[in-house]
Design goal:
Length: 168
């Protein structure tokens, strides 16, 4: 009988230990993300010190402008960035499509969730990043948001880098 009670207690109590909540006691929201992987890939990208390359950047989903971008980016001499709009609506979030800015943006969103501070209900739940195996830049970035049920709409943000070509 004692064994049965202990087993029953364990079956009921231990699952509670593994249930996680989104908000910690200090009010900070816990996000799923591997920050060390980001830092490792950022360091590897920086070490390459590429000076001349092109790529296509695009985004979809929620953005501050509400308009998706699709841009060809040409980088020369390491810091001369020339964007060209590939779709009619032009270039949105102009400072956010440079690879160095993307690394910084990911880390900033991980460490400081401004939407949560503003609303208390909307917050970044998870960041998923896929890195290029040869050049280490983030080729796909997915920001997954937590939204209250009564808020309708597309709130997740996705960013992509394709057709990367190094001229170095």
């Amino acid at each position: 009988m004692m064994r049965t009670n202990l087993l029953l207690w364990c079956l009921l109590f231990f699952p509670v230990l593994f249930v996680s909540c989104d908000e910690e006691e200090d009010g900070n929201v816990r996000k799923k993300f591997n920050i060390e992987e980001l830092r490792t890939n950022r360091a590897a990208w920086d070490k390459l010190n590429l000076q001349n390359y092109t790529y296509e950047y695009s985004n979809s989903g929620y953005s501050y402008s509400g308009i998706a971008s699709r841009i060809k980016v040409d980088v020369s001499n390491g810091n001369e960035v020339v964007p060209t709009a590939l779709v009619e609506n032009g270039i949105q979030d102009a400072d956010q499509f440079v690879i160095d800015s993307l690394f910084a943006q990911i880390e900033a969103k991980y460490t400081n969730d401004l939407l949560h501070e503003e609303t208390g209900e909307v917050y970044l739940k998870e960041i998923k990043v896929l890195y290029d195996e040869n050049y280490f830049y983030p080729k796909e970035i997915h920001y997954i948001m937590h939204m209250p049920e009564e808020m309708v709409g597309i709130w997740n943000m996705h960013q992509y880098i394709k057709a990367f070509d190094s001229k170095d």
